[in-house]
Description:
Keywords: Membrane, Transmembrane, Transmembrane helix
Transmembrane segments: 26-50, 62-80, 100-122
Structural class: mainly alpha
Order of helices and strands: HHHHH
Shape: elongated
Largest sheet: none
Strand content: under 5%
Amino acid sequence: MTTFDALFYHVFQHYKNRKSKKANSIAVFYITFLQCSLLLVLGVFFAGFFKSMHVDTMSAGKVWTLFALAVVFIHFKNWMKYGGRKRKVLNAKMLKNKKLNYSIWLLWLLPLGILGLAFVLLQAV
């Protein structure tokens, strides 16, 4: 089980009791948001690195288009991965861990903090 699987399960379990019909959609959105923010930080970091090394391979418009395509791909990958059977397998594996170890506020602040870091790095570039 990966870290993303554990985070998905914790978000899913939190919203399962409150919004039972939308819990899976919220958890898939959370994992997609987290992975896309990590991808954005990596992209901004490498853009700054390549700019300082005077490497000019792609225009900014093409990079943002590539990022948008990656976001769509990540969303559909997560939608397929956590669709039904995978979630049931995760539920069976995590039944031993009844207590959630993470605060839901901390989980939602994690991608927002990563986006803040990407914004700071983007201003430095």
